Amino acid sequence: MAHDVCFSIGGIVIEYVGSWPHLSHVITNNGSDKLDIMTMSRRCNFIGQANNVLCWFSKPDYCTKTRQDS
Asked: Cα separation of 57 and 51, whole Å?
């Protein structure tokens, strides 16, 4: 049996919501970033930032650019 947990600050109960905008990002209760990247402006912003990084780091070879450290 699940029980709702209520949090309060200064005696005022904090409202429970499924998602909330914070610092230009959408934070969801399930940790998904789908709402954050669904909007066209967010997608375009990400693509612009990725292209900017690729321009600044155009000299390293392909292996260096795609390497993932665990």
From this structure: 10
Rounded-to-integer distance, Cα 2 and Cα 23, Å: 32
DSSP 19: E
- Say if strands 25-28 and 8-9 run parallel, antiparallel, or are unpaired: unpaired
> 11-20 burial by CB neighbour count: b if 16+ within 10 A, else e?
eeeeeeeeee
pTM of the model: 0.38
Distances (CA, A) of 38 to 3, 7, 33, 63: 32, 30, 9, 30
Calpha distance 59→65 (Å, rounded): 10
The C-alpha angle with vertex 43 and arms to 41 and 47, in degrees rounded to 5, equals: 115
pLDDT at 56 over 50: yes
Distance CA 19, CA 32 (A): 10
